[in-house]
């Protein structure tokens, strides 16, 4: 666990730019949708609903407890990437933890320093309604220790993100995405979370969206 955390710090700090001058990553729009997180060992880690504000760079993700899987994690996260903080919310007992976000990598937007890889046609490119054209973007965590591959539609809706590291490779897929914020209240800090002090981060711990599943 410690090693994984240490590795991730490194990955976050060294996600260096290989920016292709001809292709800059698109930025995703405001969205509401469903997300699933599966480890590449076949464990379903979480399924839940997300709300994403692309301008404000805010993300809410709540895993659905009626998809109980042995390995799944019950999560309610509200992340503010610009401020570098997030909340772990427990609505049942109205409790909340406010924490520092160490790494802003997340599956709903392409990092600015991602590298364009290719355009692919899933399904059939010639039969109407039977194909999907995707742009693939990649980025390195370190020279060889990890990388991600993200695919987005031509309109920049995120389809999937693969995170490959030495520790826990996993796949995040998005479904039923709509280009609007259906419930803006989900992006507001709940009253019972307001005014909380920032939790201290134990030495060696890294907080990020991805770390919630590691
Ligand atoms: C995205 O949502 C935010 C928050 O509701 C809103 O301020 C912004 O105008 C929206 N952007 C677009 C392009 O609709
Ligand atoms: C959770 O999943 C169940 C079964 O798929 C669904 O009926 C329910 O609406 C979901 N709840 C939420 C909050 O998404
Ligand atoms: C749940 O996972 C734990 C550890 O991963 C394992 O030891 C246990 O056998 C699993 N239980 C079931 C019911 O699959
Ligand atoms: C809220 O519930 C969670 C688990 O259900 C527990 O870990 C936490 O300590 C509880 N918090 C409070 C303030 O009761």
TrEMBL record:
<dbReference type="GO" id="GO:0007160">
    <property type="term" value="P:cell-matrix adhesion"/>
</dbReference>
<protein>
    <submittedName>
        <fullName>Ependymin-1-like</fullName>
    </submittedName>
</protein>
<keyword id="KW-0732">Signal</keyword>
<dbReference type="GO" id="GO:0005509">
    <property type="term" value="F:calcium ion binding"/>
</dbReference>
<comment type="similarity">
    <text>Belongs to the ependymin family.</text>
</comment>
<dbReference type="InterPro" id="IPR001299">
    <property type="entry name" value="Ependymin"/>
</dbReference>
<feature type="signal peptide">
    <location>
        <begin position="1"/>
        <end position="19"/>
    </location>
</feature>
<dbReference type="GO" id="GO:0005576">
    <property type="term" value="C:extracellular region"/>
</dbReference>
<dbReference type="GO" id="GO:0005764">
    <property type="term" value="C:lysosome"/>
</dbReference>
<dbReference type="Pfam" id="PF00811">
    <property type="entry name" value="Ependymin"/>
</dbReference>
């Amino acid at each position: 666990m410690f090693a994984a955390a240490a590795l991730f710090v490194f990955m976050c700090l060294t996600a260096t730019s290989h920016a292709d001058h001809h292709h800059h990553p698109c930025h995703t729009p405001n969205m509401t949708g469903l997300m699933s997180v599966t480890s590449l060992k076949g464990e379903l880690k979480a399924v839940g609903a997300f709300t994403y504000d692309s301008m404000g760079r805010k993300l809410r993700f709540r895993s659905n407890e009626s998809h109980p899987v042995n390995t799944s994690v019950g999560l309610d996260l509200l992340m503010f990437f610009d401020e570098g903080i997030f909340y772990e919310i427990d609505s049942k007992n109205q409790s909340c933890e406010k924490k520092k976000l160490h790494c802003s990598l997340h599956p709903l937007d392409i990092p600015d320093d991602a590298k364009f890889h290719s355009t692919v046609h899933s399904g059939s490119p010639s039969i109407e309604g039977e194909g999907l054209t995707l742009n693939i973007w990649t980025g390195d965590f370190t020279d060889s220790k990890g990388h991600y591959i993200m695919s987005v539609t031509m309109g920049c809706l995120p389809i999937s993100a693969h995170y490959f590291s030495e520790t826990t490779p996993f796949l995040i897929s998005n479904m039923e995405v709509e280009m609007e914020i259906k419930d803006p209240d989900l992006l507001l800090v709940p009253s019972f979370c307001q005014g909380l002090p920032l939790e201290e981060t134990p030495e060696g711990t890294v907080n990020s969206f991805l770390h919630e599943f590691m």
